[in-house]
Here is the input.
Amino acid sequence: MPDQLIKAMAADGRIRVVAAITTNLVAEACRRHQTSPTASAALGKALTGGVLLSESLLKDSKGSLTVRIIGNGPLGGVLVDAKANGAVRGYVAHPDIHLPPAESGTFDVGGAVGRQGTLSVTLDPGSGKPFSGTVELLSGELSDDFTHYMAASQQTPSAIALGIFVGREGDVEASGGLMVQMMPDAGDEIAWRLEQAVRELPAITELLRRGDTLDQILEKALSGFAFEIIERSEHIRFECQCSEDRVMRAIASLGPKEIQSIIEEDGKAEVRCHFCNEEYHLSRQQLEELLAS
Here is the structure.
């Protein structure tokens, strides 16, 4: 099944929802970075959170969003880059970190990320000046932390649920997320009814693993509210913008002396992209041609 995303409105536009299935893009990211199960859970939640925020906050098709999560846990930092066109990429600093399960039996993402630290989001609207917002981590489990960011930095009360299921062989079997937002004119009654519906919603991965569609998940999350689907797409995917040409330009920016030093000392250059873990190998001949140009 392809990854997919839907946007919906409810309560005459006073509730806005974004829901996504991200299993394939998360599986590809985890495969490329060879993440442990705990690291896969953290990276998967961060990637899905980036998808939900980008679909909610980016209006220009050329816009992009960057999420930086820096906690005091052994996982180190987490970085996600999400484009308005649906391309998403990301990585964790220490992909081999694995912790025992939390008391709930789920992956200890909070322990891996850390209970203290920051979540920062940089928005590049595509036209205009980028701007950033930073909040303190609440738990490191990421669902709460993305929710906190939307309320504190974007002044938009939201409920965000992120989930990922990793099988016994370490493969990502299900991943997805849901963001429910209340508009300023929602009112106390709508807020209370929505809070009750979201609180009773089963875990997002439980719903995905039993075969629920995004429409069915919305019906449960918006129980008692009529809603309208305003967008349905399959454009979200794992995609990196790195290329050999970009690597060549990056090495060229080092200057002639540094390139000459690489040729004399190593006779070649090996570059690895942090975002997708792709390796690029440049031969002596390529470096000499670059130096000559």
Remarks:
- The radius of gyration is 21 Å.
- The chain has two domains: 4-238, 244-292.
- The longest strand covers residues 172-182.
- DSSP finds ten helices and 13 strands in the chain.
